[in-house]
Structure formats: structure tokens, C-alpha cells
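Box S2. Input/output pair 1.
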Amino acid sequence: AQEILDGKWHDHFIVDPIQGGAGTSMNMNANEVMANRALELLGMEKGDYHYISPNSHVNMAQSTNDAFPTAIHIATLNALEGLLQTMGYMHDVFELKAEQFDHVIKMGRTHLQDAVPIRLGQEFKAYSRVLERDMKRIKQSRQHLYEVNMGATAVGTGLNADPEYIEAVVKHLATISELPLVGAEDLVDATQNTDA
């Protein structure tokens, strides 16, 4: 898995990221790459899944329905700081432009047609205000992304996942991601409703 993180096997990830199926094909692609690499390290042939199976071994005690949403939470959390910094910069620029263009009168538009006059500065002020609200909403929603459904397996019941595994995998993910991840209070709810 570390070799994959290091980018050594990226050319083996052949599934288009824009695909249907809630990530199943992408998850299986990852499982197959890991299984085949493990087989190689053991001196066996790729595809000899009798010894190491993408489903039975690599994907053991998990499902696309818990692994994929958990990965999305982690990826989103990792991207948020950069997003918020960029939004903050845009907000500041729009504030400057609102002041700079406050005296400029222009024709406002609705429904792709000229409407009534508006100051260009007012439009830029509105852009800065929406960014301000959105940054606040993003910061407030971040706490909900820390709750993950890893260990829920296919439908949230945790079938075929030992309760100790569920606890350990979330702790391990929190450690390696350096994020304060916690297991969802209700795994069925967290699997059915990805409303974070």
C-alpha cells in the first residue's frame, strides 16, 4: 500500500474516476493492484488469487460502501485548508474591487437582458459576501466530516467486520491521516445518508 501512496503503481489504476457504481470499480481496482503486488512480493504470479484474493483478503471486513465514503471524507478534509485560503484571498480581492468600482454605474441584467442600473461595486460586494457565508458554512460543516462509517461494510450493519477491527481501523486512519476521525455513532445511518 505504501508503494501505491508513493506513486509507484499509478499506471495500474485504469478505472476512469468519473464512473458510476458508487466507486465499486475504483475500489476493486485498488484491491486488485494491492493483491497482485502482494503476490509478486511473495514470488507468485499476478492473478493467482487462490493465495491472495482482492475480495477475500485485501477487501476483508470492508466494502466500497464504507471505504469509499471514508476516503472521500479524508480527501475533502485534506483539501479544505487550501480551499478556504483561496476563498479568503478571493473574498479580499472582491472587497477591494467593490471599493474600487463603487462609483461605476452599469446596467444590471436579469434573464440575460438589461434591467436597471447598479453600481459595479455593489456586484463585487455581493461576490465577497457570498464567499464570506460559504467559508463560514464550510468551517461549520468540517466537524461532521470527521465522523466516518469505516467498518460499516455494505449496508451499515458491520457484517463480517469484527467490532475490534472497526474500532482499530478508525483509530489507525486517524493516526495516519493526522485527522481527529471518529467512528459514526450509527453506522447504518452513516452508510445510508452521506449528509456530512
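Box S3. Input/output pair 2.
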Amino acid sequence: MNLNMTFPQTEQTLTSVEEDTRATIKTLFQFLHVQGQGDYLGEQVTQLEHSLQCAYLATQSPKYRNDPEVILAALLHDVGRFIPATEKMEKMITPDGQYIGRQSHEALGASYLRQIGFSEKVCKLVGAHVMAKRYLVATDQGYYDALSETSKKTLKFQGGGYNTEQVLEAQQDPLLEAKLSVRRWDDLAKKPNFKVPLLEAYEELAYQCLIACQHSPQL
């Protein structure tokens, strides 16, 4: 028996996969639409506006403007704040009683995207925007000084800046530069009344990224 033989997919099978993938993207984007209208942790933009600005900044990057996975990760970096499971995560409350989000939303978001079939690159970038913040705080004093007050408060819940060993370990990561870029866009994406493309502009990009993963099994 030839164990290496391949079995061509029928048109019906392909159509089913494509329809399921479209439905998955529709559901994901509905979460973003419905949940994204809320306040973004005291900033002057909504959660959805923040996500759209972050994605737009990725599309303007000379290095990553043609990298759909990086653009998608920028759009979805806070998806862990949108999905229903978010309510199960522990709240971050400052000593003066201010709610500043939920812990581990980045890990929750990465896990969710992995479960629905997105690439490891997308998932790792989404799961790293808190790690990247901690790295930058440890390696760039100017970065910490430029953080918003809310972001400085969440840093305390997120473990603070990296120590030397953690910095050295992070520097071995081939995705480090992309992770830091997503983080920097995250920090900049807080401008009120900043006009950027709507969420629907990214629907086909998200579909193409996800359908590519269905056709290319990841090990």
C-alpha cells in the first residue's frame, strides 16, 4: 500500500470548508462589532476603534504592510477582551477602585484564535503584546515614560518589566521584532476621531489567512 498517496478534495468538500471558514470569520467579526463599542479602559476611543487603528498602523508599516498575518494580529490583538470567555478571567482593579481590564486577555485571545484554526504566527503575535510591553519597559526607559497612565497601571498586574534573563531569552525569538511592532502600534492606537478603514475592510484578509491554514495543516 502506498502510504504517501493523496486524495483530491471534491468540489463539494472544498465548498463546505469555504462556507465554514466564512461563517467562522462572520462570528468572530460579530464579536468585535458588538463588544467593541465599549470604552477602552479609560482612553478616548472605543475598544473597536483602538483595534482598527492598530491594524491601520500595521498596513502603513514599510516592513509589514504586505504581511497579512501581522496585520491580522494587530487587528485581533485584543480579541481576548471580546469573546464570551473573557468574563471568566480575573478583573484588574487598582487600589483606588478603577477597573483596568482583565488579566491574561492576551493568552485567552491567542488560545481562542488557535482553536478556530489561525496560524501559529498570528496566535503568537496576539499572545505576545503584553510580553512585548514588559520587554520594552525593561530595555527602553523612554518607552515606559511614554506609556499612558492606564497602561502603567496594568503593567503592575502584568508582572512589571522583564529581568535580564527574560530579556536575553526574548532576544532569541525570531518573531521578536514583529511582536514589538504590534505592541508599539497598540500603544499608538488611541487617537480620538482618527479616521481609518472599517472592520469590514479586513474580512477578506481574515478569511484568506484562515482558509490558507485549512489547506496547509500545521504540525
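Caption for Box S3: The CA atoms of residues 51 and 75 lie 5 Å apart. Confidence is low (pLDDT under 50) at residues 1-13.
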